[in-house]
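In response to reviewer comment 3 from the previous cycle, which asked for concrete evidence that the modeling workflow produces usable outputs, we include below a single protein chain processed end to end. The sequence was submitted unchanged, and the resulting structure tokens are shown without manual editing.
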Amino acid sequence: MRMTRRQLALIGAASSLVVVAGTGFVVWRAGILGGADLLQPGPLGEQAIGAGDAPNTIIEYASMTCPHCAAFAINTFPALKKRYIDTGKARFIFREFPLDRLALAAAMLPRCSDDDRFFAMVDLLFKTQRTWLVEEPLAPLLSVAQQEGFTEDRLKGCLANQKILDGIDWVRARATDKFKITSTPTFFINGKMHVGDISIEEIERLMSL
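The workflow returned the following structure tokens.
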């Protein structure tokens, strides 16, 4: 599959990305941050599931190449969804915070999916992370995207979409500058900040405070 220089640059340097993504983001800290600033959506709009009037709001900033983000998606999120999101007790907002160029490329794919398939694509990318987080990620990334109906041309068009790239970068830059986020996953649970791995029990504790 031939790519433009820009597209190749976006997913390039993958050998160094594996090192970056493999570091352990397990430092914990907590703080309170609420109000309109935290709830302001980015230029691409918010991707959220759960009732808009739910009493609890959970925001996750995640990088698609982050192993701890993948672990949360696979091991913790299903219980969160079943106990709180599906029952109207919590609203979950997913925000992109790519730590490297491959993470940025992967984050663009859910934004290029149909709106009702955004979270399905995010889930698929996390579940297959080990297959495309490699030195030559393009072919396995295409293989994963094809499971959600992407063609080669659609993938190439997605990676060339400047609006999506700029929108994701806006969210990442704002999170860095305004909320001082430096690693993933970072959660805001009713305004309370938690950085690193989190269990369903810890989420429940933070929601109850």
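Residues 13-31 have pLDDT under 50 and may be disordered. We consider this sufficient to address the reviewer's concern, and the full set will be provided in the supplementary archive.
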